[in-house]
């Protein structure tokens, strides 16, 4: 653990130093295992059959044939309902992604770089609403939408998903810290209209924040369970809700359930993996961008 | 916005410091028009999916069959035999979770920040962060396996703690810890990355001065780094506190998987859900939702105006 710098130049005694480094190293190792072991297990589980999963060593590797069999039983389950669920998830989160960007980017820009009546009120409201967990509004929105008979329609998911105050706030912060007002004023003096200022000066600079808002919106909505669970039951459910549905047909967890089609544990593990695959891929392939984005977005005040 | 926006923006900051810049240009009418037009879509959504549902929930909570009912709905849900246990469950879970989040996230961020080997530090942050991809039902689903001694990779740990079956692991008195572990696994990594970023923003001079004064790593952490992280820690605590009270998906999936060992009315949101979907009592459901919303709103308003983190411009 010599990698951990504990201020060696201060002259504290050697054994103490090594003790401190040892403890720190141990903590990191323990938590690294804690975070990684479930993921590794999840990647291996679908390559085994039910028996191997129960009796074999937890980290043994099964076979590709078995993976194929599990895949087959997943995609044939209820005539391939998994594809329906994945399609619904894509529709809801991509629809919301487009709407969110169309709504948040201009709004964040307006709040950061233009002056209009009600701007401060809008900003203060955004700050407050942004800190409220979205779950807190799920049942009130459900009650509201059931009053206007919108339950069961894709819009009942896409529209609430597109209300994303944090995205507006990120855009606001981005524009007010990276685009100088003087630059915009200069363009205005040169005779550019407000629309031109936005389209030709602000937008070309906005790519990073568009990506960041898009990422948070997509990931949050793809993984959302509560809102679609109450809004769009049955065949209109997204994969997160469908996954929990699968659970009721696993004999291991529900021995009393006499459903004709059952799901094996490895198939359930595979379904879990499939349900998060798009998000996991985004995480893996945009790691560098994300970690810097998290820090920028995380330092969100 | 001043101080923290600058912390956030780091070197990319383009605007002048507030004191030095001249008062912003006088709003022209065309600017105001564009401002209103650009923010109108968002304002509409804010009204329809933020303000209006809240008002409607208030209306439902204080009425019964469209007639004013005073606090009847609240009395009814508060005296429901399931209400107090649900409050207790949620409070215990939130206490365990927020406490462990604060201690462990700060500890891990400090240690990872002290790692001088670049790839080691990057890799560990990445590993901490990656479970964030599995949120909601997926992470609970994965944890169903991890918590079931018959398939778990850590079955020896579960058995050592006296859990011989899945039903043992999710006993109600262990549940706050189980739920806290799941939430920590999913969410801590993001916060560690954020704290790490905040630690990087502490000026090098300050750290160097501490070292010259003879402060060891522990003293530096305790007297310099943690106090400078305080705003971040309280930000994390408030957000987690607010999110924790909303507990729904984890106990719901666990309840489904445990043949009812985890009760279907374990948390307050589950109870509100049962009111709306099982008892067709939208008024009662609105009353519980409103209580939860007021708690979240209170925490948020407190933080925005008293925490001083958001100095609005």
Characterize the structure shown.
- The complex is a heterodimer of chains A (301) and B (313).
- Chain A has 301 residues and is mainly alpha-helical.
- Chain A has helices at 14-44, 50-55, 64-76, 81-113, 119-131, 138-147, 155-161, 165-178, 181-189, 194-205, 207-222, 226-231, 239-247, 265-285, 287-298.
- In chain A, α4 packs across α8 and α4 (81-113) packs antiparallel against α13.
- Chain B is an all-alpha fold and 313 residues long.
- Chain B has a domain at 83-264: MetI-like fold (Orthogonal Bundle), CATH 1.10.3720.10.
- Chain B is built from 14 helices and two strands, in the order ααββαααααααααααα.
- Chain B has a two-stranded antiparallel ribbon.
- Chain B is globular and about 70 Å long.
CATH class of the largest domain in chain A: Mainly Alpha
What is the CATH topology classification name of the largest domain in chain A? MetI-like fold
Whole-angstrom Rg of chain A:
25 Å
CATH class call of the domain at 83-264 in chain B: Mainly Alpha
Report the end-to-end length of chain B measured between terminal Cα atoms: 5 Å
Mean pLDDT of chain A: 85
Q: Percent helix among the residues of chain A?
A: over 70%
Structural class of chain B: mainly alpha
Our count of helices of chain A gives 15
Strand content of the residues of chain B, in percent? under 5%
The CATH superfamily of the domain at 83-264 in chain B appears as: MetI-like
The helicity of chain B comes to over 70%
Shape of chain B: globular
- CATH fold annotation of the domain at 83-264 in chain B: MetI-like fold
State the domain count of chain A: 2
Question: Beta fraction of the residues of chain A?
Answer: under 5%
Secondary structure layout plus pairing:
The complex is a heterodimer of chains A (301) and B (313).
Chain A: H1 14-44, H2 50-55, H3 64-76, H4 81-113, H5 119-131, H6 138-147, H7 155-161, H8 165-178, H9 181-189, H10 194-205, H11 207-222, H12 226-231, H13 239-247, H14 265-285, H15 287-298
Helix pairs in contact in A: 3-14, 4-7, 4-8, 4-11, 4-13, 5-8, 8-11, 13-14
Chain B: H1 2-9, H2 29-61, E1 63-64, E2 67-68, H3 72-79, H4 83-114, H5 118-129, H6 136-147, H7 155-160, H8 166-169, H9 175-200, H10 204-212, H11 217-245, H12 249-257, H13 268-277, H14 282-306
Antiparallel strand pairs in B: 1-2
